[in-house]
Amino acid sequence: MNKAYKEILSLMNEYCYSIDKGDVQGFAELFANGSFGVLGSDDGIMTGKDEVLAYLSRVIMYDGKPNTKHCLTNVQIDIDEDAGKATAQSYVTVIQAVPPDFPLQAIFSGHYYDNFALVEGEWRFRTREISPDLVGDLSVHLAEAL
Q1: How far apart are the C-alpha atoms of 120 and 134, rounded to whole Å?
Q2: What does residue 58 show for φ and ψ, rounded to 5 degrees?
Q3: Mean pLDDT calculated for residue range 30-45
Q4: How large is the average pLDDT for residues 34-60?
Q5: Closest to 132 measured CA to CA, from 36, 48, 60
Q6: Can you tell me the distance from the alpha carbon of 66 to that of 9, in angstroms, rounded to the nearest whole number?
Q7: How many CB atoms lie within 10 A of CB 63?
Q8: Structural domains present in the chain
């Protein structure tokens, strides 16, 4: 596994870690020079840190955390180091529990489509498109459902 691959995989994982621990500032910073959006959503595309932070205000927190785990699988990364660009795709399954009334369950399963760029020696998100393939009960996750 080469250095670029490791750095991009780490960035993809940081997306999951930051939101699951309730670090909305760190999560939004991942898109300081990029954008993300849920395909088919009325929300459109969020670009830059401020728009991402505004979107995250919809996430319901429990003692500072959303009580979720974002699990990435089937990760595929394609890198063009000469051009300083990369693409990736992966599956995501989000599980959540809010005891005692909301037992552990999958609330979302989808597909991430990512574009990255090498900016000042660091890989960064350019875009993340999220395909909501299977959507469960989001009532304790988002103030407004997808």
Answers
A1: 37
A2: -80, -20
A3: 92
A4: 93
A5: 36
A6: 23
A7: 6
A8: 3-135 (3.10.450.50)
Write the DSSP assignment of 30-49 as a string of letters.
Answer: TTTT-EEEETT-TT-EEEHH
C-alpha distances in Å from residue 22, one per residue of 52, 64, 123: 14, 6, 23
| The pLDDT of residue 145 | 58
Task: Tell me the per-residue pLDDT of 122-131, one tens digit each, with 9 for 90 and over.
Answer: 999 999 999 9
What distance in Å separates the CA atoms of residue 116 and residue 48, rounded to the nearest whole number? Answer: 14
pLDDT tens-digit readout, 61-116: 999 999 999 999 999 999 999 999 999 999 999 999 999 999 999 999 999 999 99
Compute the distance between CA of residue 107 and CA of residue 69 in angstroms, rounded to an integer.
10
Q: Which two tokens stand for residue 54?
A: 């505004």
Is omega for the bond preceding 100 within 30 degrees of 0, making it cis?
yes
- Grouping H, G, I as helix, E, B as strand and the rest as coil, residue 12 is helix
Q: Which residues in 115-133 are b (16+ Cβ under 10 Å) and which e?
A: ebbbeeeebbbbbbbbebe
H or E element, residue 8: helix 3-20
